[in-house]
Amino acid sequence: MNLPPAVWFLLARLGGVVLLGALVGALLGSLIGGIALALAAALGWQLMNLFWLDGWLRDRANRSPPDVSGVWGDVVSQVVRLHRRKRFHKQRLLELFRELRRSTAAMPDGVIILNAQWEIVWFNRTAGRLLGLRRRVDDGMALTNLIREPSLARYLQQGEFAEPHVLARGEPRVHLSFQVVPYGREQRLMLVRDVSRQVALESMRKDFVANASHELRSPLTVVTGYVETLLQDDALDPALRAPLTEMQRQTQRMNGIVSDLLDLSRLDANEREVQGEPIDVVALCAVLRKDILARASHPEVQLDMASDAKLLGDPAEVLSAFSNLADNAAKYTPHTGRVRLRWSIDADGSARFEVEDTGPGIAPEHLPRLTERFYRVDEGRSRDAGGSGLGLAIVKHVLQHHGAALDVQSTPGVGSRFSCVFPSRRVIGGARGENLPPAIRTA
Ligand code: ADP
Question: Whose CA is closest to 325, among 400, 270, 407?
Fold first, then answer.
């Protein structure tokens, strides 16, 4: 049998005691009595050891371990070893925790630990200062009871924490950014930052662009006027006609850039979702088609109206976004190509406006950057086509105002498809697909 040496020792000692008891019993004339007495003495000894051990375990902090041998000695040393190891780990954990608390407390950002009910478990000094939280008084309170801002409550409720939520609070106005980092089981870490400086800089940037664009408008109008008057003059020196025509082309381009910049500034100034009014997209697509066909060298234009549903939105903004997409398709598609405008409702009820072309297409590496201001895939091609590089940035902003998303599919050499997907709450009525009269389907 594979028993520990201490157990063998105990059994041997018990055997020795029983033998001694039997010997003494035999000498005194009662073998059984001798053995029974020896066994009782051995049992008493074990009980005494057990009693010592129990007493020590109950009051381990104040007593030194009992001095026992054999199996009991083994048990005592095992307990002592386990206890030391536990104490060592506890100490290390405690030091780590203190370290963590000290470093989090010293962080320049506010940190709040929240439970599943959004109640405050702990917060650092910066969070206390930024939000006016009081230690012990506000511990355990629901965050939304302390910061009574409906937009913050909505942000916490919707559970989408990829982007921080920025709030303006107090007097003088301070802009605070709240970012939730979920961790563990329903625990949340909230980072609170003072972003007033960034917000002020961003607002200065917006104001500068808006003012600069506005100021450029008047001199541009004067130059455009003079160039047009000169070009209409029959006595114009023929040598000047070509440079003046180029000047006219460039001033038109500048006018386009300035007006796009002003549009973007207006869109930038308001980040809230617009309510708007019902827009007849079928009629709008017919207008877009006419505009493309009015270009000097235009591709073939097809309409595919799979629904006559109306879109709830801002008419001027939606017209600007859709015409930017249609204009791009017309600009970049050769006159031998084809452009298709499609309006349809998806299975989930969302609405889709698509502009598809058989133009040059866009390489995949450019797709994520297309909506950046002044981003051009091919500088020369865009300039020749009279592009400002701002069209898709305007589309992105308009779609943001409508809770919609832009999806771009493109294959170089084959063509592109730009889709604006609007949420179902923006769709009003309308027959769908095959129920539409053919006159509407292809207008
Ligand atoms: P631009 O005024 O230069 O057209 P946009 O912001 O509208 O600026 O578009 C950004 C860039 O995306 C364009 O410069 C062009 O290179 C590319 N692009 C946009 N639409 C198309 C399209 N339909 N086909 C090919 N390239 C396109």
Answer: 407
Neighbouring-strand partners of residue 313: 277
What value does the mean pLDDT take over residues 299-304? 95
Burial class for 220, CB neighbours closer than 10 Å (0-12, 13-18, 19+): middle
Residues 190 and 110: their CA atoms lie apart, in Å, by 8
CA atoms within 13 A on the CB side of 49: 17
Please give the backbone phi and psi of residue 424, each rounded to the nearest 5 degrees, phi first.
-60, -25
**What is the C-alpha to C-alpha distance for residues 391 and 325, in angstroms, rounded to an integer?**
8
- Phi and psi dihedrals of 374, rounded to 5? 65, 15
| Residue 442, pLDDT score | 59
For ligand 1, atom 13, which residue shows the shortest CA distance? 376
Q: For residue 52, which phi and psi values (nearest 5 degrees)?
A: -60, -45
- How many angstroms separate the alpha carbon of residue 264 from the centre of ligand 1? 16
Regarding the beta carbon of 388 and ligand 1, being less than 6 Å apart is answered yes
User: 362: closest CA among 390, 388, 333, 384?
Assistant: 333
Q: What is the dihedral of CA 133, 134, 139, 144, to 10 degrees?
A: -30
Tell me the CA–centroid distance for residue 318 and ligand 1, in Å.
18
Query: What's the average model confidence in pLDDT over 408-428?
Result: 96
* 198-249 per-position pLDDT tens digit: 999 999 998 999 999 999 999 999 999 999 999 999 999 999 999 999 999 9
Residue with token string 């630990």:
113
pLDDT-based confidence at residue 76 (cuts at 50, 70, 90) = confident
Q: Which amino acid is at 395?
A: V
For 141-187, the pLDDT digits (tens) are 999 999 888 999 999 988 889 889 999 988 888 999 999 998 888 88
What is the Cα Rg of the chain in Å?
Answer: 41
Cα–Cα distance for residue pair 316/299, rounded to 1 Å: 26
Residues 401 and 387 sit within 8 Å (Cβ to Cβ): no
Contact, 309 vs 352, CB < 8 A? no
- Position 106, amino acid: A
Q: What is the DSSP string of 33-59?
A: HHHHHHHHHHHHHHHHHHHHHHHHHHT
91 CB contacts (<8 Å, ≥6 apart)?
A: none
Structural contact between residues 184 and 114, judged by C-beta atoms closer than 8 angstroms: no
Q: Give nearest CA residue, ligand 1 atom 23.
A: 329
The two tokens of residue 391 are 């069209």
Which residue lies with its CA nearest to atom 21 of ligand 1? 328
pLDDT at 438: 57
Closest protein CA for atom 20 of ligand 1: 328
